[in-house]
Specification:
Pfam families: HTH_21 (PF13276), rve (PF00665), rve_2 (PF13333). This protein is 47% helix and 11% strand. α4 packs across α5. The chain is of the alpha/beta class.
């Protein structure tokens, strides 16, 4: 048995049987200096493998911080302390820096153009069931030379239970139809549940419009709106759009609208089906929703 194998065996026996190190070294006929040299070699070899795994995870998931990397490793059967992962990411320049960039804001508020609903959600973003609390908003993204003529709008309907994007749309114009079409998609997707849905938005003109309000009323959906100029009232969807931009327009320059649109489709699929979350026990939004629906429906 080599010194490296002896060192590993000593570590395992000490951990399992809590025997003093000096006794184990004597039984293994291994000097203290040889033990520590071998142990250092073993850890360096282990770290090399771990660094490769972390690099692979970060290359696919460019917005992952060390906590989410720990979850991704755990899902692969690799259990490692979060401090070690943080150190490795720092030493290898693997930290996510895209969140440091400023994002472009879109303001759809045009004054009172229809009905303004009460702020019924009141920042109670947590819920214990899917399809109960939905947040929506519109954001702006650009392509080409980033001019006003090269901008598009993205809207999403986000389930506050799992963070899943239940429906979304992209368009060159932030029209009422632009937000109503994915609303109808959401309504058609909603299963037959024993509780009503609350849909929260800001006071944008699309959400005040009679067509939008009537669609909600017809389907017995409770409307809630943020207070004027209070973006924290819709913080979850704001956070989602920031992540969307970090993973797309902050990372890549899109030459055409079609390239931008394809990137949005790819990101939504990634966000729903591949991006794990700590608060979802390391599951993706779709996995978490499917797990819950079987007990609720």
């Amino acid at each position: 048995m080599s010194n490296f194998e002896k060192a590993q065996l000593v570590v395992e026996l000490k951990r399992e049987l809590n025997i003093k190190l000096v006794i184990l070294l004597k039984a293994a006929r291994l000097s203290s200096s040889s033990f520590h040299y071998a142990l250092k070699h073993v850890y360096e070899k282990t770290d090399t493998t771990l660094v490769a795994e972390i690099k692979n995870i970060v290359s696919v998931n460019k917005d992952y911080g060390y906590r989410r990397v720990v979850l991704a490793l755990r899902n692969k059967g690799i259990i490692v302390n979060h401090k070690k992962v943080q150190r490795i990411m720092q030493e290898n320049s693997l930290q996510c820096t895209a969140y440091n960039k400023r994002t472009r804001k879109y303001n759809s508020y045009k004054g009172l153009v229809g009905k303004v609903a009460k702020h019924k959600l009141k920042r109670r973003f947590n819920t214990d069931r899917p399809f109960q609390k939905i947040a929506t908003d519109v954001t702006e993204v650009r392509w080409g030379s980033q001019s006003i003529q090269e901008r598009a709008y993205v809207t999403a309907y986000l389930d506050l239970y799992s963070g899943e994007v239940l429906s979304w749309n992209i368009s060159l114009s932030p029209s009422v139809k632009f937000v109503v079409d994915p609303l109808n998609e959401l309504i058609n997707k909603r299963p037959n549940l024993a509780y009503r849905m609350v849909l929260h938005s800001d006071q944008g003109l699309q959400y005040q419009h009679a067509k939008f309000v009537k669609t909600l009323s017809k389907n017995h959906i409770i409307q809630s709106m943020s207070r004027k100029a209070t973006c924290l009232d819709n913080a979850v969807i704001e956070s989602f759009f920031r992540t969307l931009k970090v993973c797309t327009v902050h990372q890549t320059h899109y030459r055409t609208y079609e390239e931008l649109k394809s990137a949005m489709i790819e990101f939504i699929n990634y966000y729903n089906n591949k991006r794990i979350k700590q608060k979802l026990d390391g599951m993706t939004p779709v996995e978490f929703r499917k797990h819950a629906i079987q007990f609720i429906a």
